[in-house]
């Protein structure tokens, strides 16, 4: 079973993403409301991937990602950034960071697990039940 850590300061986003991944893919979801909390959870739990908000109070997602890269215990965990910003300069800046992918808010809860699996090139275990849209 895949384990995903969601790091987002917004309760609603964490809840929708958690329910979505649990219901559509059967993944185990861990959550954190800040980058610091997320890094602690990641080090202990070693999730398969991290879905992290870009804009968070205190330390933003890209800064947390750079800090994670300095920690050998969590540096290899793939990170997908979630952002409401869709300007070209932001896309380039995020791509230059070396994150696995950048997803845009609002995301579609019904296809979020599919998007994550596709971005990380995970084999789909239930491809027969997925619908084309």
Report on this model:
- The protein is an alpha/beta fold and 133 residues long.
- It has a single domain (3-129), classed as Rossmann fold (3-Layer(aba) Sandwich).
- 40% of the residues lie in helices and 18% in strands.
- It has five helices and five strands.
- The protein has a five-stranded parallel sheet with strand order 2-1-3-4-5, sandwiched between helices.
- It is globular.
- 27% of the residues are buried.
Short description:
This protein is 40% helix and 18% strand.
N-to-C SSE string, H for helix and E for strand = EHEHEHEHEH
Please state the second-level CATH architecture.
3-Layer(aba) Sandwich
Instruction: Please give the radius of gyration in angstroms.
Output: 14 Å
Our estimate of the beta-strand percent is 15-25%
- The helix/strand class is alpha/beta
What does the main sheet amount to?
Answer: 5 strands, parallel
How would you classify the quaternary structure?
A: single chain
**Rough outline:** globular
The number of helical segments is 5
Cα(first) to Cα(last) distance is 26 Å
Strand numbers in spatial order across the main sheet: 2-1-3-4-5
Determine and state the CATH class: Alpha Beta
Instruction: List the uncertain runs.
Output: 126-133
Q: What's the helical proportion of residues?
A: 25-40%
- Average of pLDDT: 89
The CATH superfamily turns out to be Response regulator
* Domain count: 1
- Can you count the beta strands? 5
The name CATH uses for the topology is Rossmann fold
